[in-house]
Amino acid sequence: MTFTDSQTLPEALSPVEVPNVKGQWQNPFYLPNAGIHAHVLPNGKVLFWGRRIKSGEGNLDVHECTPFLWDPVSKSTTETPQPTWKDGTKVNLFCSGHSFLPDGRLLVVGGHQKDSIGLNQATIYDYRTNTWTPTALMGDSDDFRRWYPTAVTLFDGTALVMSGSTTDSGKINDKIQIWNDGNWRSIVNFNVPPLYPRLHLGSDGRVFMSGPNARSQFLDTKNGGNWTPLTKDRANGSREYAPSVMYSDINNLEGGKVIYIGGGNPPTNAVEVIDLNEPSPTWRSTEPMKFARRQHNATLLPDGTILVVGGTRGNSGPDNGFNDLTDGQPVHVAELWDPDTEKWTELAAETVDRCYHSTVVLLPDATVLSAGGGEFQINGKQNDPEDSHSDAQIFHPPYLFNGLRPDILTAPDEVTYGETFEVGTSNPEEIGHVSWIRLPSVTHSFDQNQRINFLASSIKQQKLTVTAPPNPNVCPPGHYMLFLLNKKKVPSVAKIIKISGSLVPNLARTLVENLATSVGKSTTEIPNTEKLNQEITDADKGTFVEVGLTSTCPYGLGACWGGAYEALNQMDPDAVKFVRPIANAADSTASVYLNHDGLPDIEQWPNQFARTANESYKFRGVEVTLTGTVERQNGHLFLQGNDVRPGISLVPLEGTDKIQWNRSTGSPKPLEEDERLAYQRLASNIQNTGVSPEQVQVTGPLKKNEVGFELYLRKFQYVI
Q1: Distance between CA atoms of 710 and 712, rounded to whole angstroms?
Q2: Which one of 1, 59, 534, 608 has the lowest number of neighbouring Cβ atoms within 10 Å?
């Protein structure tokens, strides 16, 4: 079926009085499906896919895909073939990661079996033939599945893949893999990475992970890989569902700066920037947005500004703030950030809610396409069909109302690094800047492909001469949109150009080692998740503490574990010795070990945890396992104290106090018979003697009142 822009939604837009200041949105138009994944191809068309066969209807866990092409010129759509496994079985690419290869093909990794259960597949879309071709599997076991992974193109044209939930067991894929011409190789792992990590290729060849974790890190991919954390965390803690954009000042040919925009729970308007070219890169807070947002998108514009669209400012509703669509909470007003002034400007408001599962891409004509939203479920209940958006809107930024646009009459289809080439234009003397933007590939509030360079240019014999980027570190090989901007910063329609050539950077790679010594301590060997888990089992450790955590992410603590793991490891450093790298997804709990046999600081832990995790998780309380002598005191059971902890009153466990959680009901799990009778049984055992003849290991939720500590006994055993 073909759709055109004559099929518009009934809502009319309010007129914008000053489009040269606020910009202007066109009316929404229908698409065949919700645009949850969006990519601008080298031929200028946009490749979309959603989650299921028809947005708003049917099973959310179908095992086939919905790809289609939208033509910005004709405003028509056409289907693509279905991506498949090598045996021809259809595959669903929802919740995958993706990045463009040097020849313009799109590599897509992972995908959707069901919420939090990924796929180990990889496939390639070729825009030239409109075909999908499966490539080698990432691995042959469940450990290689990926749901919510990120892919980023490296300087040599290979693609690095990181993260993704594997199964509903609570395991996040810790393997970092590099795809090279149909083959996979693994490098150093990263235990408990966040889902959809925000990755950027830096000008020294390293990969920078800006978020969503509070602690940003560099990955040097050579010699098996090496992680180097920054010495100072990004402000405002872990902030998921936030855009991270690599940008450049308009007069800076070097590029290599990153901005992190909003996100988190509750949504924040906080903004931080970092210059990766500095000897010791450090995050710096700058002017906040006008509106707090999460689930929003950000896209580079030809003049170097960054457009932010959509998102929600709310942190309540039926999903506890994950994607608050309560009236008045979705943000329709767009905002524009100027990297030269670091100031924000409010722009015109979009018509449609663009929150979770929305996308935004820059089109070759310098307009912006905003699409998608919806297609999710909370605790097994699908979102209202009215909140699934199979439509899109086009935004005309203010620069399109500031006079005539420059043109591109001639330009090469392909250039090499450092090449000087001519661009034909009617008035070369009017050109003030030349920008070079990598084709977008976006999902889940993050464009895994976009970056910008400003290119040196000059006029020779009435012709505009432009110099291509110098090396693939500052400009990975592939296709870019070349824009000419006049002296009023009005852009031309882009010419899409492929850059290629030697894939060995001209920059001195020794810069990597020099930077590693100044940024922070490097870790060359990291045990994988299973080995780390076993090392914790075998190690000497103190009190075992089970922490009850409820993730506001609807996929549970197992899939949405990265931020909690980071926060637990940064909590109470003088007492916390180990955090197990795998969450107990079934009970929605985390396993923590102290470095002593005392008690956790239950008064401070919730606040310490929230400093990093914010409100992305609810800290429900803790359960401890302690060993000692139990005696009767005034008719009640009492665990005697020792030199590292006080005595503790034992009390019967009530159902509402249990730490183990039922995510589907949103309440503690019911007491089992042994748990309900645990206190009674222990009391009966020591009724005659008044004191336990042996040491007793007791387990249960720990609380504190004005008198002291109480342990709500869930289970016990004698220690011989």
Answers
A1: 6
A2: 1
